Amino acid sequence: GCVTMHEFTHQWNLDYHDDHHASEGMFHHLDITTDGCLKKDDLGMHHMAMDTDNDNTVTGAEFTAWLHHVHPDSAGHGHHGR
């Protein structure tokens, strides 16, 4: 029921090819409860932010828009081209 920072950063680096610092930053952004562990409570809050049309489903486009918003590159543009 818990994803640790180590587990998250390892998988995030594999999936998105970010450096360790950026991956830790993303973990801390997601960890709303600041307990060092990602749980349903943390992710539920982000799900609501991603689901912009309030249909209780996050589409690929909604996820990509959210990701670009919370994880911009150094120029302020979306980091991931997905």
The overall pLDDT average reads 85
Strand adjacency order, main sheet: 1-2
Order of helices and strands: EHHEHH
Q: What percent of residues are in strands?
A: under 5%
- Structural class designation: mainly alpha
Global morphology: globular
Give the helix tally. 4
Low-confidence stretches: 74-82
Gyration radius, rounded: 13 Å
How many strands, what sense, and barrel or not for the largest sheet? 2 strands, antiparallel
Q: Would you report the number of β strands?
A: 2
Helix % is: 40-55%
Report the end-to-end length measured between terminal Cα atoms: 28 Å
Protein name: EF-hand domain-containing protein
GO molecular function: calcium ion binding
Domain EF-hand: 38-73
Keywords: Calcium
Summarize the structure in words.
Keywords: Calcium. It comes from Magallana gigas. This is EF-hand domain-containing protein. With 82 residues, the chain is mostly helical. It is 55% helix and 5% strand. The chain is built from four helices and two strands, in the order E-H-H-E-H-H. It has a two-stranded antiparallel ribbon with strand order 1-2. Helix 1 (5-16) crosses helix 2.
List keywords for this structure.
82 residues, two-stranded antiparallel ribbon, globular, 2 strands, 55% helix, mainly alpha, disordered C terminus
In terms of topology, how is this protein built?
Elements: E1 3-4, H1 5-16, H2 20-30, E2 37-38, H3 40-50, H4 60-70
Helix pairs in contact: 1-2
